[in-house]
Amino acid sequence: MPLFDFMKKSQPAPVTFPAELGSPVSGDFIPMASLKDEAFAQGKLGTCCGVKPTDGNICSPIEGVISEITDTSHALVIQAGEIEVLIHAGIHTVNMKGEGFKTLVKLGQVVKKGTPVLQMDLWKVRNSGYDDTVIIAVSNSKDFSGVEALRSEGKVKAEDGLLKVSK
């Protein structure tokens, strides 16, 4: 390896379509219309779905670059080519002001599918009275010919296919 190769900024692989977004956590699948947040359930933040998690380890659903991180560490955006993927840990958890959440990545970091990106303390979220459902949304869904769920119910493991994005 040449001496300065370590200084080159790594780039994510190009996205091929249809693109598949994996589950950010293991748990029970929740379709968009059943989400307990009106904005997400009505698709106002893009086509989405949720997973009621069995643990608080949240991973990247696709290879891309971390483009946004909330100050409260409950949500982030991954830019995967043209696709903007929002991961939102819990419902109305912004009100927890960061308590129970930890960001594991930095802005501009390249992540692979399955890379841990957030941690959510499920006990703290539940005992604070919030829903711990992890939502994954394609926030720019209107830029594509289709964004659809790959399932309608059931248990999922982290990285199992959840959403398909077609150009």
The CATH topology turns out to be: Glucose Permease (Domain IIA)
For the record, the CATH class is Mainly Beta
| H/E element order | EEHEEEEEEEEHEEEE
> Helix content range of the residues, please?
under 10%
CATH superfamily: Glucose Permease (Domain IIA)
Largest sheet: 8 strands, antiparallel
What structural category characterises the helix and strand content?
mainly beta
Count of β-strands: 14
Which stretches of 5+ consecutive residues score pLDDT under 50? 1-8
Write down the oligomeric state.
single chain
SS element count, helices? 2
Integer tally of domains? 1
Question: Can you tag this structure with a few keywords?
Answer:
167 residues; mainly beta; Glucose Permease (Domain IIA); eight-stranded antiparallel sheet; three-stranded antiparallel sheet; globular
